[in-house]
Amino acid sequence: MRELPEGRSEDVFDDYKPAYTTNQARVEANRCLYCHDAPCIQACPTGIDIPTFIRKIATDNVRGSAKTIFDSNILGMSCARVCPVEVLCVGDCVYNEMGVPPIQIGKLQRYATDAAFSQEWSFYEAGESTGKSVGIVGGGPAGLSAAHRLRRFGHAVTIYEKRDVLGGLNTTGVAPYKMPASRSVQEVEWVMGIGGIEVKTGVSVPSDISWEDLEAQHDALFICFGLGPDSRLAGDGADLEGVEGAVDWIERMKLSTVDVAKTRCLVIGGGNTALDCVREACGLGMPTTMVYRGTEEKMSGYAHEWAAAKQLGATAAWQTQPTGFVGEGGKVTGVKAVKLDDAKQPIPGSEHVLEGDLVLLAIGQSKLGELAASLDGVTLEWGRIQCDEHGETGHPGVFVGGDCRNGGKEVVNAVAHGRDAAIAIHARLTGGN
Amino acid sequence: MPDLSTNCAGIKSPNPFWLASAPPANSGAQIQRAFDHGWGGAVWKTLGTPIQNVSSRFGAIAYGGHRGVGFNNIELITDRPLDVNFREIYETKKKYPDHAIIVSLMVETREEWKEIIKRSEDAGADGLELNFGCPHGMCERGMGSAVGQEPAVNTRITGWAKEFANVPVLVKLTPNVGDILPHGQAAKAGGADGVSLINTIKSLIGVDIDTFVPQPVVGNKSTNGGYCGAAVRPIALHMVGQLARDPSFRLPISGIGGVTNWRDAVEFILLGSSSVQVCTEVMLKGYRIVEDMIEGLDTYMAEKGFETIDQMVGRAIPAYSEWGNLDINYESIAKIDADACIGCNRCMVACHDGAHQCIHPNPDPTKHVPVVDEDECVGCNLCQIVCPVEGCISMVEVDNGFAPASWNQHISDGAVVRPKKGAH
User: Fold this and answer.
1) What is the pLDDT of residues A400-431, one digit of tens each?
2) In chain B, whose CA is at the least distance from the CA of A32?
3) The model's pTM
4) Taking CB atoms and an 8 Å limit, are B292 and A61 in contact across chains?
5) Cβ pair B106, B172 in contact under 8 A
6) Which of A326, B137, B178, B336 is a Cys-bridge partner for B76, taking CB atoms 3.0 to 4.6 Å apart?
7) Which residues in chain B have their CB less than 8 angstroms from residue A63's CB?
């Protein structure tokens, strides 16, 4: 794994939710009602025992608090920062029902897990060797979660990662005001601390190593290679300089540098990647407009993210469909667009050009499921690899998790997939024990 | 790895956390569930001639948004048939042989004590706890605290129990006495293997100011009950410490009273308890609190280098002394961390109105941090207590050049004491 360079574009961002001091954490922890069978637990894809970890902060058992979190979610440190808690645990806090501000679960989780990192507490040891080996294709949250759990069971683990860094979108894609790449890399090292996780970076599957070879080397496989490149927009001028895929641009912004000397940024799309781009471009000092086919009410991105973007001065062109690009000297200068009616049909005569010298396409990413389609029994639906509830595909011994299974959800969903697949793999390799 | 197992008066349990004799220890199903959560022992809700209870039974104090800081009950001993209780004790002990089951007892005559002790032991009790503490309902019938308040009666009945019992006998003491020592000594004189304290404190939890009926309301009347919960912990700590530090006492102690978490439990252990009993916090939060208690105690012991509970028991006793032995020449003053101060001025008003008028507004009106007149500060702690920011106000030791001297040394040996501060 390579080290991150100094002077990355993401360095300009500060924490948008500053960490709690001990005082603040205790005050907030003591507000928690310590509900039984709490809605916040139900809302967490990894089912962290939230009331318990919060009570442990209140009783000054912070070490135990961190362990409660990591027992369910080994990436609890990053999830504390990147989870959309407003629509998960915090959104379901019973205080909302009382009209009282909900418990800031994410910030409390960050308090406990940050303490674990800074105090270098370690909770887990690798299990006694079982002689079994599992290959993990993809070094993102799902893969790390599975690898750690499998090592606790005592299985040998090899991660195959096409990039030269691990952490997946936690490293390459998370908005830097939530978590910089450097923090994700620290988390990767923390997870690796269990020992015995072999990592092969710069290896793509199946182009660099075939499925047959992987199956020959391992007793089970876990596929978690995420999503593919950004989808492109058809239309004139799609190849102009300055027209970029959103995920690709974010990765460069986080791991190296992007050109911030642009006069206007246009972000195409209305999902959460688009909103990240809008907030990031604004934060980098570029006036930014989001261009979306639908309405503000129906956008798929989170309302709280858009509210934050507006505070940064972002504007939006709603019900607007890009049809092509205009440029000069090979560089983009604007997006050709047409207004849509409520049935999403173009309104004749509404054609216009939106000016912009950076156009970020956040209209989805391609699915990589085809890469695994050559495995007997593996089936796809809309490019997503199909599996049973435990993550096992139609090819016995091959499991799947993360974005290539669910089409692209949160980090915490991937962590749950990885953990649960590891438990199922362990059951398979040990005859159900 | 610290060893959390404990031996309190010959009663062994995998950890020092026991359910106190109370509603959470009312039945086998409950206690088995508690053991599954991690409780090391349970004192079965007091057995005797089953009684009839009233409704309602509980009251609580809310303070600063926290309900249940202090708690009160008028429930009596078991209302379930003795046969059922003994069968469940037997089943529970069989299923959980390594956990401690102590049976709390309260009957009247010698013959009744003989019979109920035999039945308890036949059911598998690891120990007995004589309920000489209940301050409501039972005492009017000549039991509970009516026994605990009379040392001679305490000694006599404890003697009966010891005559009939083969397992260790703990005497549960009432705090509704002027001085706990003679009552602990009375139990010892009767042959008790240990004591447990405190039982609840006689109390009236409140009055409904609209209906003019005290609480808890039973129809249109109420009665006094037993006070417990976090608020009673200082009273319990004092009584536990009083017994533990008396060289003529030296019996094992099971500490009870306002334990809400592992830190509270550690305090009881440091003051001489070799097991700690909990009721109210379980009633408010459930058996599940014990996981944090075990984990917190384990981490604490590892950090402090304690390998066994025994090494902790009574570690704070040497520093628990009489006022006359305190070093009068020790001097401390308040220091305010200007960077941490949020400018609420609570310290200033507390000092002006409730202490010694030595914290003043900053002479620079653009600054919000109050200033301490160090020549006047008596080091009373009030400002630190009212400060909402942890660590903002610290009490700092001052080297005043006087050698340590207690009041007793001053009286007996003429030791030099420093001039008074703030006494003008």
Assistant:
1) 999 999 999 999 999 999 999 999 999 999 98
2) B66
3) 0.91
4) yes
5) no
6) B137
7) 295, 299
- Does ipTM exceed 0.85? yes
Tokens 């830097």 locate to A176
Q: Are the C-beta atoms of residues A179 and A78 closer than 8 Å to each other?
A: yes
Mutate to test the interface with B, among A55, A59, A98 (most CBs of B within 10 A): A59
pLDDT at A433: 47
- Chain segment B239-282, per-residue pLDDT in tens: 999 999 999 999 999 999 999 999 999 999 999 999 999 999 99
Give dist(CA A288, CA A278) in Å, integer.
Answer: 6
Q: Report the side by side order of strands in the sheet with A197-201.
A: A197-201, A156-161, A133-137, A220-223, A398-400
- B208 touching chain A per CB within 8 A: no
Which CATH code is given to the segment(s) A15-119? 1.10.1060.10
DSSP state of A432: T
Q: Is residue A432 very low, low, confident or very high in pLDDT (cuts 50, 70, 90)? A: low
Burial of B379 from C-beta contacts in 10 A (0-12 / 13-18 / 19+) = buried
Any chain A CB within 8 A of the CB of B409?
no
Interchain CB contact of A123 with B (< 8 Å): no
Q: Which of B22, B6, B2 is nearest to B256 (CA)?
A: B22
**Which chain A residue has the Cα nearest residue B65?**
A31
Nearest neighbour of B261 by CB, restricted to A26, A52, A59: A59
The CA distance from B9 to B250, in Å, is 11
Hey, are the CB atoms on B295 and A61 less than 8 Å from each other? Answer: yes
Task: Provide the CATH topology of domain A133-226+368-429.
Answer: FAD/NAD(P)-binding domain (3.50.50)
Architecture in CATH for domain A230-364: 3-Layer(bba) Sandwich (3.50)
Q: Which of B262, B286, B390 sits opposite A61 (nearest CB)?
A: B262
Active site residues of B: 134
Residue intervals in chain A for CATH 1.10.1060.10: 15-119
Residues of A whose CB is below 8 A from B261: 58-59, 61
**Residue-range domains of chain B with CATH:** 6-319 (3.20.20.70), 323-413 (3.30.70.20)
